[in-house]
Design a protein that fits this description.
The chain contains 13 helices and 8 strands. With 369 residues, the chain is of the alpha+beta class. α5 (116-147) packs antiparallel against α9. The longest helix is centred in the N-terminal third of the chain and has 38 residues, at 75-112. The protein is elongated, with a radius of gyration of 38 Å. The N and C termini lie far apart (147 Å).
Length: 369
């Protein structure tokens, strides 16, 4: 009877204590979250309930397993397995707590500051900090798991003795990876590019969607994802349309006939902009910027609050002005002149025969005496 009750008491007691502690901690965090609505930390910490219960259960079983006397012939293997579970669950709990603290800090900062550029910068920094902390915790947890095996503990001294050589070899082999790692840190704290920025890289226009320690993802206007190493942004020039503010100025070019009614176009442009919700009202204009033997180049200048709106304003102006010209002033559209070339009067008279008379009955002057 004792051999049956002892394992039930040890295992069942560990599970019951784990459930009670998890329930109590969750109730306390829920109560704290109701009292402090402006602090999202307590609500975020409730995500740690499951890893906390796994840590507590693994610790209780690891400490009381010997007293349970379950499969004593496999006791070392089961003890090592519980140790591995405990280490892994502890790393999981630490990562969850760090993520809750980082997200809470970012949420409070975003609420207190209305500057989108500063908010995006802090978001980029805290995201990379969270990834760095997670990577460190995972590496330490894996090292601790390996040290639970006697073979790895015995090899520890020789590994430490050759650590210098291994470090040099690893540094040479992972030069590209380390370069991307330091480039990611430089981007995060150098404020070169942030999550949510509008950039142009390799001729592609898009928005920075994700920044990690090794790569950066840009979402283009047609929903494609361009993945680039972060070292690209520290070694090559690129356009950042959100740097220093999101406001933008755009241009629309028209190639028209020389008879185009430019003053009327200017009035029509103002009417179109007043009806366009994407125009921010800062500035506008229309001017003739160039001329060719067959056309005029007319430039319309518009402004908007960000890159998305400037695109909307430009396509709206282009569409409505071209339609207005086609309906109201079709002569202003560019065309190819196919009429017969006019000849100067003197050259025409010289080309006629002597017996040909002009319309007024006079003989043409040929210049031959």
């Amino acid at each position: 009877m004792e051999n049956v009750l002892r394992p039930l008491i040890v295992v069942g007691g560990s599970v019951v204590i784990t459930l009670l502690v998890g329930w109590a901690v969750d109730r306390l965090l829920q109560r704290a979250d109701r009292r402090h609505h402006d602090t999202p930390l307590w609500g975020l910490l409730r995500r740690c309930r499951l890893p906390l219960q796994v840590v507590l259960c693994a610790a209780l079983l690891r400490g009381s397993y010997d007293q349970a006397e379950i499969a004593p012939e496999h006791s070392p293997a089961i003890g090592r397995a519980l140790s591995l579970v405990l280490i892994g669950a502890t790393a999981w709990l630490v990562i969850r707590i760090a993520a809750a603290v980082v997200e809470s800090s970012y949420a409070r900062y975003a609420t207190a500051h209305r500057d989108p550029a500063r908010v995006r910068r802090v978001r980029t920094q805290v995201t990379l900090i969270q990834r760095i902390v997670s990577a460190i915790v995972i590496v330490v947890a894996l090292a601790a798991m390996l040290l639970t095996f006697p073979a790895f503990r015995a090899a520890g001294a020789s590994l430490l003795a050759s650590a210098g050589i291994l470090g040099i070899v690893a540094g040479v082999a992972a030069q590209s990876t380390l370069g991307n790692l330091f480039a990611g840190l430089q981007i995060a704290f150098g404020d070169m590019v942030r999550i949510g920025d509008t950039v142009v890289v390799d001729g592609e226009w898009g928005t920075v969607e994700e920044i990690t320690l090794t790569f950066l993802a840009v979402r283009t206007w047609d929903e494609r994802r361009i993945t680039m190493p972060v070292s690209y942004f520290t070694s090559k020039p690129f356009e950042n349309w959100s740097r220093g503010g999101a406001q933008m100025t755009g241009t629309v070019f028209f190639h028209l006939d020389h008879s185009a009614p430019v003053p009327l176009m200017r009035e029509k442009l103002h009417d179109v902009l007043r009806e366009c919700a994407a125009w921010d009202g800062r500035d506008w204009g229309l001017a003739v910027t160039d001329t060719t033997p067959s056309t005029l180049q007319v430039r319309a200048l518009v402004t908007a609050k960000d890159a998305d709106d400037i695109w909307t304003v430009r396509v709206t102006v282009r569409e409505q002005l071209v339609r207005w010209l086609a309906e109201q002033h079709p002569y202003a559209l560019p065309r190819i002149n196919t009429a017969t070339a006019l000849i100067a009067p003197d050259e025409m008279a010289a080309a006629l025969p002597d017996h040909v008379l002009l319309r007024d009955g006079r003989a043409p002057r040929t210049g031959r005496g």
